[in-house]
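Title: Comparing notes on inverse folding

I've been comparing how different people in this forum approach sequence design from structure. To keep things fair, I'm posting one structure and asking everyone to reply with a full sequence. Here's the target:
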């Protein structure tokens, strides 16, 4: 088949030329050591990068006590679990978090310009219950944080929480039928029900660039923005940077959001880019004053469902969110299949569609960036489905500022010296390095994400049990770890949703209602039946699609396991093909709760000696 005409003035699609270009760009980035990172928990020099710059740590005595539920993590998931537990009548709830307050991601990420990527009317949870309408289509971080704090306050989750407290170990006490939770503040909290809501992007990532520790200037990660150094605030000018040369490393979702404010404030800004993101139109704007008019009961769930249906390629009457996710992301993941198409034709048309969307993005760069050399470097040459897309209206324009220099380093930064980054032998002298290098991927095994050892029945740790892959019922419970729930997350036999909040809402409702039901049913201990776990895990394995043929041609990113999609473990997949079958998963969990028979669980009802 010959070249096809591209849409919107795109160059005709010639598969051979496009494949060759994409592979050449991929190969520049497939360099040994690219995925090496500093382990911030173990690295003495860099451990300080995790310190909380936002809230002073106050001294307190260790706590030894007994509660009904411990929730590890006070982000969206933890707050929603807590709120639903309150609704179920549970009284003694302890949230424990390393952060100095509620919010999780939104507590930690306060960098200038931070905002959500998914429309706020579906991303910010419990809008109906709190009778709140976000001020912007894509809310800024501070507003999301305040909203989560408001939910936590409404459900009385704050006063009993232990903040600035890291859980270091949890062990199941068989005789007492309790979890004993130990922290880095010397606390020992015993609980009947243990809930892990530790996050999906909770582990900041610092690349392992040689010489980082030699840098003589100031450095920090975007997830711990140092306003004492930069001045300003997340929506205020960074007024202490006027005489500072700043290096920003990383142009993913966080990096791109903080470029415009840095460009506006710094004496000079160097942006070090390994892989350009595809930057779609954001179209952010204040909420239409009439938005709330006529919204009926259940409107938020309906809007979330409408978005999710589009993400799964299902027909809908109207696209309520109507943005880059519903247009581009949904299109490339569910290309139309005309009747009579062979598989080869279908794959080719999917590629063509992807190409047209990427050409649109590349044209957008040309239109917005006046320096053709910089524009070329900013053009993403890979398939849209290869890397999480970004959306922004000011990012590309920032490269027109004379004080902004883009540094192309597909193979990464050679070294960081006392003076700053070194790339291809060129030394960039800077006062400050901002690491916009993101987070360990969502697929990081749960036993690493939780940041503590979890010791279940017979002294078996979660790390041991899941060493060869996840094993669960619903992606939320695991045999040998009685009375423990894990909020659903990627890589864990649940489902993945582009709008994470939707799965957190479901997880929160499930945990709250399930614990309420177990309590009312007089259940002291539950564990997962071996056959139920085996069947669930098998379903996950059976629905795994090996996409490594497509994904190995991608530019390396966290979506394709940094260029090694073949290493993805089917057991760490989802319930249903691809991102999982969200609607079936929700029906199943809701049906399980409705039935009230604890199917798949072994339950012990006898009283436990106190
Ligand atoms: C800048 C940014 C923007 C984002 N935008 C979107 C978006 O638009 N849409 C979307 O769907 N997703 C987005 N995400 C992903 C985001 O992480 C999730 O949407 C969501 O906030 C995760 O909530 P969570 O409660 O699961 O985890 P988190 O918010 O990460 O909270 C987990 C908490 O657990 C605590 N914790 C972990 N381990 C321990 C331990 N051992 N002891 C004590 N505390 C512990 C952590 O300190 C953290 O506060 C974004 C992420 C970032 C970083």
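Reply #1:
Here's my take.
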């Amino acid at each position: 088949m010959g070249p096809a005409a591209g849409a919107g003035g795109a160059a005709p699609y010639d598969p051979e030329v496009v494949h060759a270009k994409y592979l050449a760009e991929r190969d520049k980035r497939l360099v040994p050591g690219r995925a090496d990172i500093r382990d911030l928990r173990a690295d003495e020099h860099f451990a300080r990068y995790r310190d909380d710059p936002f809230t002073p740590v106050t001294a307190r005595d260790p706590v030894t006590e007994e509660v009904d539920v411990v929730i590890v993590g006070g982000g969206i998931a933890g707050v929603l679990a807590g709120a639903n537990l309150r609704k179920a009548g549970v009284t003694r709830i302890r949230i424990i978090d390393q952060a100095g307050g509620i919010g999780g991601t939104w507590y930690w990420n306060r960098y200038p310009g931070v905002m959500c990527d998914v429309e706020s009317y579906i991303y910010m949870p419990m809008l109906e219950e709190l009778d709140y309408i976000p001020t912007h289509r894509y809310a800024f971080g501070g507003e999301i944080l305040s909203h989560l704090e408001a939910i936590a306050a409404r459900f009385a989750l704050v006063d009993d929480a232990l903040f600035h407290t890291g859980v270091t170990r949890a062990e199941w006490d068989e005789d007492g039928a309790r979890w004993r939770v130990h922290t880095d503040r010397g606390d020992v909290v015993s609980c009947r029900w243990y809930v892990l809501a530790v996050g999906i992007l909770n582990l900041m990532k610092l690349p392992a660039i040689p010489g980082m520790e030699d840098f003589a200037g100031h450095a920090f990660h975007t997830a711990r923005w140092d306003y004492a150094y930069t001045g300003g605030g997340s929506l205020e000018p960074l007024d202490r940077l006027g005489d500072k040369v700043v290096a920003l490393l990383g142009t993913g979702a966080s990096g791109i959001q903080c470029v415009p404010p840095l460009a506006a404030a710094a004496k000079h800004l160097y942006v070090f880019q390994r892989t350009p993101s595809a930057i779609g139109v954001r179209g952010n704007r204040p909420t239409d004053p009439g938005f709330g008019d006529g919204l009926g009961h259940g409107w938020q769930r309906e809007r979330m469902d409408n978005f999710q249906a589009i993400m799964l390629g299902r027909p809908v009457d109207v696209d309520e969110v109507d943005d880059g996710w519903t247009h581009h992301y949904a299109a490339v993941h569910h290309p139309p299949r005309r009747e009579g198409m062979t598989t080869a034709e279908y794959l080719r048309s999917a590629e063509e569609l992807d190409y047209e969307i990427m050409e649109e993005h590349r044209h957008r760069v040309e239109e917005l960036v006046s320096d053709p050399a910089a524009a070329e470097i900013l053009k993403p040459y890979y398939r849209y489905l290869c890397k999480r897309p970004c959306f922004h209206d000011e990012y590309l324009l920032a490269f027109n500022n004379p004080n902004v220099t883009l540094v192309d380093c597909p193979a990464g930064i050679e070294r960081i010296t006392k003076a700053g980054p070194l790339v291809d032998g060129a030394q960039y002298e800077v006062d400050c390095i901002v690491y916009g290098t993101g987070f360990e991927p969502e697929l990081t095994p749960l036993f690493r994400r939780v940041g503590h050892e979890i010791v279940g029945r017979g002294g078996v740790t979660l790390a041991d049990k899941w060493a060869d892959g996840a094993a669960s019922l619903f992606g939320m419970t695991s045999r040998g770890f009685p009375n423990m729930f894990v909020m659903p997350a990627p890589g864990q036999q649940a489902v993945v949703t582009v709008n994470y909040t939707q799965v957190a809402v479901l997880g929160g409702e499930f945990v709250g209602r399930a614990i309420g039901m177990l309590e009312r049913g007089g259940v002291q201990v539950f564990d997962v039946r071996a056959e139920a776990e085996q069947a669930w895990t098998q379903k996950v394995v059976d629905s795994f699609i090996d996409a490594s043929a497509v994904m190995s041609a991608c530019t390396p990113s966290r979506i394709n396991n940094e260029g090694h999609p073949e290493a993805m473990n089917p057991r760490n997949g989802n319930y249903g093909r691809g991102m999982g079958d969200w609607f079936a998963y929700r029906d199943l969990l809701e049906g399980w709760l409705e039935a009230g028979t604890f199917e798949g669980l072994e339950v012990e009802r006898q009283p436990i000696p106190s």
